[in-house]
Amino acid sequence: MVLASRAPSSTEKIRDMELPIINFLDKRSDVSKLIVKASEDFGFFKVINHGVSEDIIRNMEVECFEFFGKTVPEKQRAGLANPYGYGSKNIGFNGDSGEVEYLIMDTNNPLSIFQRSQTIASADPTRFSCAVNVYMEAIRKVACEVLEMMAEGLGVPDTSVFSSLITDLDNDSLLRLNHYPPLLPNHDTSSAPSFPLQINATNSKRIGFGEHTDPQILTVLRSNGVAGLQISLGDGVWVPISPDPTALCVNVGDVLQAMTNGRFVSVIHRAMANSKQARMSMAYFCAPPFHANITCPKELVTLERPNIYRAFTWAEYKKVVYSLRLGDSRLELFKLQSDDETRD
Ligand SMILES: C=C1C[C@]23C[C@@]1(O)CC[C@H]2[C@@]12CC[C@H](O)[C@@](C)(C(=O)O1)[C@H]2[C@@H]3C(=O)O
Ligand SMILES: O=C(O)CCC(=O)C(=O)O
Ligand SMILES: [Fe+2]
């Protein structure tokens, strides 16, 4: 078995480009077509008029800033990210690191959030757990709408084929709060960027969260107004995503790439910590239950487009994810060989 590790290219180029913008207030059939197109072309899009109120987002953001504003020993009381808890610089268990601190929480257990909030927000644990639970519920609703419109746009008759996985009581979704500290004055590279910008050893590049794909079904990300997120177009070309605190950035994860037989793409992205201000992002990773069998609906398998991936469970996939580095490709390992007889 050969592992495709994506080594960074020596010369990187930044290309200015806007992501597709999906307006939830537009006609549903138009919205679902646009979502499908964006998921095929970029695996990323922004959603505006998503219906998550400013209050819900503000309350969550207040809790984030309060948590990350604490001293390190206080933050460590949340427990080490194993995989839920607080982490700083170290990412995962296999030697990855970046200029980021974060808090990961599991989402399908309000009691565990309440228990955790006793150490995360001891001054007012109820306020913290309420803000988190209300936020997660609202974001999951957006994710379900997106997943249902994806199925509609793909012509899959069972329109809940994707969304039912994340509403299952045993879903394994998680919430990750990321805080990228601001640049220190002596890190400043001063000259204004011109596009395409050649990044080399002389203009310092601070990776916040290194390049990777998200393993789950779908990610819904909200960030403050500070830039940092970039998506890869391959061959060392990176597209910075302009920050919009009123929008939600949605991206396809590995499981959805498998479930759409490769029609939707789980795109490599990263977050830079090059700003003079702190970037704060809140990512809701929509994941299936452990026992869920990941296969694509039969309508997405045709003679011209035979099955690309073998069936697997989320438990099996997650085990592989955590055994590898951030930038390793994992879905490759689940590809059917062309001479495989069983194309399930
Ligand atoms: C290095 C790692 C961190 C990660 C688990 C992994 O072994 C490989 C994937 C990483 C990632 C990326 C998306 C999400 O932020 C995350 C929570 C996930 O599900 O996969 C992280 C994992 C992590 O930080 O624990
Ligand atoms: O902070 C960001 O903008 C991206 C974070 C991310 O990609 C992740 O947490 O998986
Ligand atoms: Fe990500």
TrEMBL record:
Lineage: superkingdom: Eukaryota
Entry EC no(s): 1.14.11.13
GO BP annotation list: gibberellin metabolic process
Alphabetical list of Gene3D superfamilies matching this protein: B-lactam Antibiotic, Isopenicillin N Synthase, Chain (2.60.120.330)
Keywords from the UniProt entry: Dioxygenase, Iron, Metal-binding, Oxidoreductase
GO molecular function, one term: gibberellin 2-beta-dioxygenase activity
Top-level class of the enzyme under EC nomenclature: oxidoreductase
InterPro entries per UniProt: DIOX_N, IPNS-like_FE2OG_OXY, IPNS-like_sf, Iron_ascorbate_oxido_reductase, Oxoglu/Fe-dep_dioxygenase_dom
Recorded catalytic activity of this chain's protein: gibberellin A1 + 2-oxoglutarate + O2 = gibberellin A8 + succinate + CO2
Protein family membership: Belongs to the iron/ascorbate-dependent oxidoreductase family. GA2OX subfamily.
Protein name, UniProt field: gibberellin 2beta-dioxygenase
Species whose genome carries this gene: Heracleum sosnowskyi
